[in-house]
Amino acid sequence: MRMNHSLYQAAIAHFDEHNATDPNVERVNGVAHPRELLQAQRLTDWVLKLCPQAAEPLRLAARCQHLGRWQIPRDSYPMDRAGYLQWRTALKKFHAQKAGEILRQVGYADDIIVRVQNLNLKKNFPQDPESRVLEDGPGAGIVSSCRRRRDAGASLETQLRREGKSPIGQGARAKPIVRA
């Protein structure tokens, strides 16, 4: 399947425009940026590092995986494990729904929209190799981020444990995805 560059660029612009409204900011080199806009850009970069020949739906799913994440705050659910899992499930559905709206608006066909939504919903994980790449993108980004801002003297493993994160998992052990 050939990538439709004009639709792809329009979708990325809409995703970025939405994430640019995130009221939460992250400073990079002293400059404040909307947090989810940065996260979307980082995930896209990591997915392309992990899978340079990534298909269009995987690229789109990377950019919109946490679309509007701030709109469903963590504290709107019970602050226990069950509440966390409910929150994550609600977020996945919200991201998939919002991504579908944007992809439809820019003119994507239903098969691409459904594929992006299935990747966002983590359907067929870990059997689906693209879902593993999408899942490993944040892990790779977390490792990189921890290395940049790690406490003096703290090991990477200590920092990851402190943040409750796990390093790269299923996708790193998967067979590479080969695109013709």
What would your notes on this structure say?
The chain has 180 residues and is mainly alpha-helical. The chain is 59% helix and 4% strand. It starts with a helix and ends in a 17-residue tail after the last helix. A two-stranded antiparallel sheet has the order 1-2. A hairpin with a 2-residue loop joins strand 1 and strand 2. The radius of gyration is 16 Å and the shape is globular.
Q: Report the major sheet.
A: 2 strands, antiparallel
**Poorly predicted regions:** 163-180
How many DSSP H or I helices? 7
Q: What is the averaged pLDDT score?
A: 83
Strand content: under 5%
Computed Rg: 16 Å
Overall number of structural domains: 1
Q: Helix coverage percent of residues? A: 55-70%
How is the largest sheet built, in terms of strand order?
1-2
Compressed to H and E, one letter per element, the order equals HEEHHHHHH
User: Which structural class fits the helix and strand makeup?
Assistant: mainly alpha
Which outline best applies?
A: globular
Count the beta strands.
Answer: 2
Q: How far apart are the termini?
A: 9 Å
List descriptors:
two-stranded antiparallel ribbon, 4% strand, mainly alpha, 7 helices, 180 residues, globular, 2 strands, disordered C terminus, single chain
Topology:
Elements: H1 5-19, E1 25-28, E2 31-34, H2 35-50, H3 56-64, H4 81-106, H5 110-120, H6 129-149, H7 156-163
Antiparallel strand pairs: 1-2
Helix pairs in contact: 1-2, 1-3, 1-4, 2-3, 2-6, 3-5, 4-5
